[in-house]
Amino acid sequence: MVDRGSSSGNVWFPVVSILVVYVLSSMLFGMLFGWLGQGGEDPMFWGFVSYVAGFGAAIGYAVALKPAWGLEVPSFRPEKWGADPRVIVGGMILMLATGIVLSPVLERLPAEYFDRLDDYMKGGFWPMFTAVAVAPVVEEFLFRGIIQKNLVRRLGPFGGIAVGALLFGAVHVNPPQVVYASCLGLILGTVYYLSGSLNSAVTVHFVNNGLTSLLYMLFGTSVGLEWRILGAGTAWGWAYGLSVVLLGLGAWYAVWQIRRREAEKKMRSEN
Known about the structure:
Strand content: under 5%
Number of strands: 0
Structural class: mainly alpha
Number of helices: 10
Shape: globular
Order of helices and strands: HHHHHHHHHH
Largest sheet: none
Number of domains: 1
């Protein structure tokens, strides 16, 4: 049975305060290192430093809260994070399907939102390095390993995964990223919960960001990457229909697996 005892009952304060620390520290470091970047050095490098510092502050704060609030925090040794290849492959398939299904929706948003993302990606090495090598690790550690895991203790798996995904989407700020990251957060959260492995979520996140960065380098834009590859004809129609079916089957399987595991936990606790 999901632990919803006294320690998990107070989960809202640590979760909200961790997010507040992340937002405020990101803003503070952004202003500080942005000022340093005006001195002639690569401003994108200082943007990278600011990004890492913001997550470092939030994770450090969560570790400091651990004794008093009973927070669960992952090990800082990646070799202990484990991996489940089957869940990883399933997560990758659903990730690709999500991109295809959301593409027509996101393209209806104002072009200025995509221009912001494109301007960032034009920054060269540091934005790419941040997106591909750093973001999958620090974002999964914070949002799945700390925030979601502790929300699940309070809300159960469905509520914990959903709220964690929405928070993950919200911190991306830019509307197209908010929508996509929220949906991706559902997949990453489910991957993490079903595998019990932070490396599984990191791997799916890495493939998502790496593929997006690669396609950006090929096409020079983040708009409509899916139909740029598949075209706007029959192939797109088949791909879209297949993606809808895969997402439906994936959602059904995830719900079934989560309910089965919850039932097994309940039986063990009653015996």
